[in-house]
Amino acid sequence: EAVEDTRRGGKGASLSPASRKALTSLSSTVAGRGFLAKFGKLHIGDTDKSGVVIGKLIAPGALRRFGEKAQAAEAARAAAAPAPSEADLLGAQLMHRMIGPMGLQAKLDEIGEALGKSFGADPDTAEWGPVAQAAGLEEIRQDAGLVETCLGRQLGRRFSVEELRAGIVFLDTAAGQDVLAGMAQRAAGGPERELTKADRKAIDALRKTPAGDGFMRKLGALDQVNWTAGIQDFLIAFFPGALRRFGEKLEAQQVA
Questions:
Q1: Dihedral of CA 131/137/139/142: which sign?
Q2: What is this structure's pTM?
């Protein structure tokens, strides 16, 4: 109370006899005298720096607890959601085959890196930048299946179930693997990959069916897909886990 009164600009509340006795007892030990000497030099309300120090002590646990609670809430929401449709499931299977070739992994990693930059840009938390980035990248890797599910829903809305079935079967063939390799080459900014005679024959056979033809046409126009909804779904589920990992890493540093 005396400290708080002084902080507000008063002269400091007078201590009761019992309080004085307790302080005398505390100051009779080396640790107690050290505590009182350092406590008397704290001016938490007087400088921004003191607030930053206290905030950095509290933040790791707060980040971890927030992440845990948000993850639990998201898990409950997901459990109550309707079961995924066949198109959703097939879309996720297709996305599993295409994340690498489409160059999406690098873009997903940028999300984890951005988490680190958001802390590293502030001088008061600059040392947290690498920790936040590591937590973000770990969560990205851990949530690979979640990425496929969220973005796969977008594919499920663009392709018909028949097209998805035909496309997944095709991509697992040698010709399909060559097509994926060509996509990866384009995504990396490389030259167009030449398809073999066998590849073209397999593609021609696929295009002779309505489902196969539809799949190839839409596959060639994936740059027109609006991924916004899928990315938002992913971020909603990603950030709680990333913040939990971030808080855990900071707490481990505090203990160390």
A1: negative
A2: 0.69
